[in-house]
Amino acid sequence: MEQKMKLARLLILAAAGLACASSPARAAEFPSRTVEIVPAGNPGGGLDLVARALERALREEKLFPEKFVINNMGGAGGNLAKNYIHQKKGNPNFLYIESNRIYTNRIVGTTPLTYTDVTPIARLITEYLVWAVLSDSPYKSAKDILAKVKADPGSVTFGVGTVPSNDQMNILRAAMAQAIDPKQVKIVSFKAGGDLMIQLLGGHVPVISTGLSEAMEQARAGKVRLIAISAPEPLSGDFANVPTWRSMGIDLAILHWRGLFAPPGIPAEAVKYWDQTLPKLVKSDSWKKILAKYQWFDAYAPSAEFRKALAEENKAYEQILTQLGMAKGVKK
Q1: How far apart are CA 138 and CA 145, in angstroms?
Q2: Given 17, 56, 204, 226, which is the most exposed site by the fewest CB atoms within 10 A?
Q3: CATH code for the domain in which residue 203 is found
Q4: 271 in Cβ contact with 120 (< 8 Å)
Q5: How many angstroms separate the CA atoms of 180 and 327, rounded?
């Protein structure tokens, strides 16, 4: 009888242990192993730099107890990395660094996946976009250019790196705010930011929209003037005098952000972990030094705020790209 009771107790304990091991609470424990960070770009690119900066700062500040490995996955305009992360459903041990391609790629029809098919964790940093003209340009302000475009839409050619892009939206959204038909705005795209600046310096285009980091060297050298910046507030330092759209009476701000995502369906405890950890990171000395080194700006937004911003951006871009006939991925 005693042996039977011991056996029964052992069976109960074993069953309890099995239940605990398989329970959601146990399964959701995080962090408990190495985490793979997947930048949706090649080594040395902007997304890769953010991934490595995140890993370094978390390590230096001792905010993450486990190790990271970085697995660069460039190609297909970011879709390769997105597909990879989407296939890791429910696994919090994978992170993914991406830009607004997270939703624009679906809009233009290169993938069926969008920001709702992964888990937004946080917006981390941003760059800002500028309009640049030659130092001796007859255009004194962005409002001068917009007035000319409104009177004669084909009279000004804008240069950008690629389309669709935030460079492009920094032109079109400003034009639309002045009741200019975006389909009438003349935009020419070039290979990348460096090529774009060459086109401006060579006099091939009169105005370009590009990242501040791509234009600051020539601006400091006095070769170009920056006549608008997409920041919500004026910057400090060397570029404090560059007018924001809002300072010109145009209610527009565009963040050229980099964000952190995870696979779909990860445990709520993992999202909560990052919502509690990343605010400490962005206030740290390690992170502030990284921002200064790369001329990035703090744009931290936790998961809920980031999801809301993504929905708003997606709606705005979907409307504009539909007007331009570029929204091939949007169901009619």
Answers
A1: 10
A2: 17
A3: 3.40.190.10
A4: no
A5: 20
